[in-house]
Amino acid sequence: MKRLLIPALAPLLLLAACEQKTAAPAATAPAEERTVATPTNSTPTETAFQHDAAVELTGFYFTETPVQAGNWKLTSLDIGQPSDFVDWEAGKRTETYAPIFLVFDDVTSPTAENELGQTYHKVSIRLLPDRYSVDGKTVSFRANDKRLGEVVLELYPDLAAYKKARSSGPNDGVQKPVFTGSLQIGAERIRNLSFSYHPGE
User: Fold this and answer.
1) Helical H runs in 114-176?
2) In 16, 133, 165, 190, which residue has its Cα 20 to 30 A from 29's Cα atom?
3) What number is the average pLDDT over the span 158-177?
4) What is the band of 172 on the pLDDT scale with cuts at 50, 70, 90?
């Protein structure tokens, strides 16, 4: 009788063993959750670009005195429309435009003349931000470039001067600076820097 029971029980024991093996991985399931990537820089990424929707500083800005680092001369600070900031911060970005950027010209590069009869250098850098913060008290901008190094712009806007300059236009005598502050290019820091407003073409 015992000899008959052993062959009959063997398949049941084998089936039970298989069920235990297949059930075993369930105990290690939490380990799989740890393999899901969680960005460690999620907070900096979300806060890297900030602007105050109530403040508009749209325009082109030029320094009162020339600013140059090596062969690279600062041409302008460009600030876009409020909608440009909204799009950028929503992830709608391109490689050639940002709501705030700096333009540098290589003064050793060949020159040409534009349709307005103005001379310009053919080699330039449009430096887009890695970080920015724009509001009614400060305008800050940070970027890195292999030719310029780290670039840090810290400015303080004069909102009353901006409104006056925008309403009167670029040819209304001497413009009061709209921004004052500092600019760091690589290891060089330029203080007491001022920018005046130009509406563009």
Assistant:
1) 159-168
2) 16
3) 80
4) low
Work out whether the CA dihedral 125, 126, 130, 135 comes out positive or negative.
positive
Q: Are 151 and 144 in contact (CB under 8 A)?
A: yes
β partners of residue 139: 134, 155
Is 90 exceeded by the pLDDT of residue 4?
no
CA distances to 106, 107, 131, 149, 188 from 70, rounded to whole Å, are 9, 9, 24, 12, 11
What residue type is 57 in one-letter code? L
Give phi and psi for 66, each to the nearest 5: -60, 140
What letter does residue 58 receive in the DSSP assignment?
A: -
The residue assigned the tokens 């393999």 is 35
Choose among 31, 30, 28, 48: nearest CA to 39: 48
């890695």: which residue's tokens?
A: 130
As a whole number of angstroms, the distance between CA 133 and CA 51 comes to 6
Bin 38: left if φ > 0, else alpha if -120 < ψ < 50, else beta.
Answer: beta
What is the residue-wise DSSP string for 25-71?
Answer: GGGGHHHHHTTS---TTHHHHHHSEEE-TT----EEEEESS--EETT
| Radius of gyration (C-alpha) of the chain in whole angstroms | 30
One-letter amino acid for residue 187 of the chain: A
Lowest-pLDDT range, 14-28, 77-91, 117-131? 14-28
